[in-house]
Amino acid sequence: MKWKIACIQFDIAFGNPEANIEKVCELVKEAGKDNPDIIVLPELWSTGYDLGRLDKIADSGGFVTTKFLKSLAKEQNAHIVGGSIAKKTNRGIYNTMLTVNKDGEVAGEYSKLHLFRLMDEHHFLQPGKTDGMFKLDGENCAGFICYDIRFPEWIRAHTTKNAKAIFVVAEWPLARVEHWRTLLIARAIENQCYVIACNRSGSDPKNEFAGHSMIIDPWGEILAEAGNDAETITATIDLAKVDEVRKQIPIFEDRRPQYY
Which residues are catalytic? Predict the structure, then answer.
């Protein structure tokens, strides 16, 4: 299975869902001109990190953004890994990744498991409790959100289930851009899978963000990387390469988890 991937890196309007929905609509349609198979958005793309106002601006039930992403996916005939949104429920607000396939069906939903205390997420958000596995075109994939990549055991829990492509969406700060790059490359090498990572660019009242969205192959080679500014990167990945690499260096067969 070969997929052409487009990662849309942009500056999110702080606390303004209407403006961000309009912007994403424009950017997805522009990216669609190159006929990608999968389009990826960044973390909390509809609200940004306006955590203190999430009770007012979060999407209740995720209904508005789910409907929006379904419509875009069908219109562009592309799967959309819809970054993440602030989803309001009767149990609290979650940082939730929505993946919609090209038929306009929800293929996966994952709420961020690891909340980042340095940005006060634990004060405003509830942690997820489910894994990030989903299928596109019958292939196993997994989704993660930002801080998740600092937990290699969480990533490995998905690649042992034969996830061949992992999608990471983020609002990763510029101050730790080298951590971002190093961790993503390491996750690709140690899991022998593609890593497709979409970060935001720009800034908000408290943070400057790194950009540097990346598409990385199972050997850890960078197929595409953005700079700091708004940009859409593309690359074509071939999932057959995952099988080739895993056969050449059979780390999954050689694991001895009974001793870990």
Answer: 43, 112, 146
- How far apart, in whole angstroms, are the C-alpha atoms of residue 76 and residue 101? 11
Angle at 145 between CA 140 and CA 151, to 5 degrees: 85
Which of 217, 221, 183, 220 lies closest to 199 in space, CA to CA? 183
Residue pLDDT, tens place only, 132-180: 999 999 999 999 999 999 999 999 999 999 999 999 999 999 999 999 9
Q: Are 163 and 142 in contact (CB under 8 A)?
A: yes
The low-confidence residues of the chain, meaning pLDDT below 70, are none
Q: Are strands 106-111 and 92-100 parallel, antiparallel or unpaired?
A: antiparallel
Please, what sign has the CA dihedral across residues 171, 81, 10, 48?
negative
Residues facing 94 on adjacent strands: 87, 126
In this structure, the number of other CB atoms found within 10 A of the CB of residue 75 comes to 14
